[in-house]
Amino acid sequence: MDGIEVIANAFKIRASATLDICAGTTGLTEAQEIELATLIQRNTDFANGVPKVKPLTDILVAKLVSQTYKRDNPELPDGAKTYCKKWLKEYLYKRRADIKSKYIEKGNSTEEDGFTLMAVELGLGMVYKNTQYHSNEYMQGTDDLFVNGVVYDNKSSWSLDTFPMFEAEIPDDKYEWQLNTYCVLRGVNDAVLAYTLIDAPIEMVERELKWLPTDNEKYRRAVNMLFTTEAFEAARIALFPDATYTYFTPIPQEKRIKKFPVTCEQYKTNLTIERVKMCRSYILTLLKS
């Protein structure tokens, strides 16, 4: 194996990015599969002299050829290609984009509080964040918690508006795929995705209110970032003491967590492995170009 093959084969998908390479189709769509089958059948019937079957037109012959090629030579979707290009630049030049946002900052700063809420409301007992990195031939990642053979992952919602309090299904498919990869890496079948609604740290609230001109406006912004009476009162006294609006409805602890059970699905595992292999082949073409 030469140097560029070693680089291409070093590619493994991070659990959090699994859907980035698994989304989309690599060959024909379902409609194209049906159309191709119809063209093949018509072409076969004409060749066999079936009565009243007309030969394919030049346009249909071209479509038959192109769709047959696409079926037999599937390509990665554009999104997966973009991910491969990004990965290769990071791998070759040892630089990784430092993605920052207030949503990520809140998730990081409230992580421990989220774990505590999960431990209490889900009956997990004493928990500690997992720091162990896991990897196999195709995948890699570090889950949040692993308790009694179950993977747990916490997503800290920014506000009540983004918190899936009444949702019956996981709002974002990428998290299902992420947990599926964690399950594979752990060799288990069950996981739980838990959304938590945690008070924003007061320094973050202060930054959000900094440029608002009146205390009433600051109140209206802050009330969407705070969910317990204790946190709200501390912020009110420190940041908007002259607000005439002071009404606040706390959200009970048990209402500030929403769990979604996730079961490892073999088709997702198989597709992930297949796409990793395709990504490696595509990366190899990039290195040769």
Query: What Rg do the Cα atoms give?
Result: 26 Å
What is the topology, as strand order, of the major beta sheet?
A: 4-5-6-7
Major beta-sheet overview: 4 strands, mixed
Give the percentage of residues in beta strands.
Answer: 5-15%
Shape by Cα distribution: elongated
End-to-end C-alpha gap? 18 Å
Please work out how many helical segments DSSP would assign.
12
Assign a percent range to the helix content: 40-55%
Overall pLDDT: 94
- Per DSSP E runs of 2 or more residues, the count of β-strands stands at 7
Please, could you describe this protein's structure?
By secondary structure, the chain is an alpha/beta fold. Among the domains are: 3-96 and 274-288, no CATH class; 202-250, no CATH class. The protein has 12 helices and 7 strands. It has helices at 3-9, 18-22, 30-47, 58-72, 78-93, 102-109, 111-121, 173-186, 202-209, 215-222, 229-239, 266-288; strands at residues 13-14, 134-135, 139-141, 145-147, 150-156, 190-196, 257-263. The strands form 2 sheets. It has a 4-stranded mixed β-sheet with strand order 4-5-6-7, sandwiched between helices. Strands 1-3-2 form a 3-stranded mixed β-sheet. Helix 10 (215-222) packs antiparallel against helix 11. The protein is elongated. The mean pLDDT is 94.
Summarize the structure.
The protein has helices at 3-9, 18-22, 30-47, 58-72, 78-93, 102-109, 111-121, 173-186, 202-209, 215-222, 229-239, 266-288; strands spanning 13-14, 134-135, 139-141, 145-147, 150-156, 190-196, 257-263. It has 289 residues and is α/β, with parallel strands linked by helices.
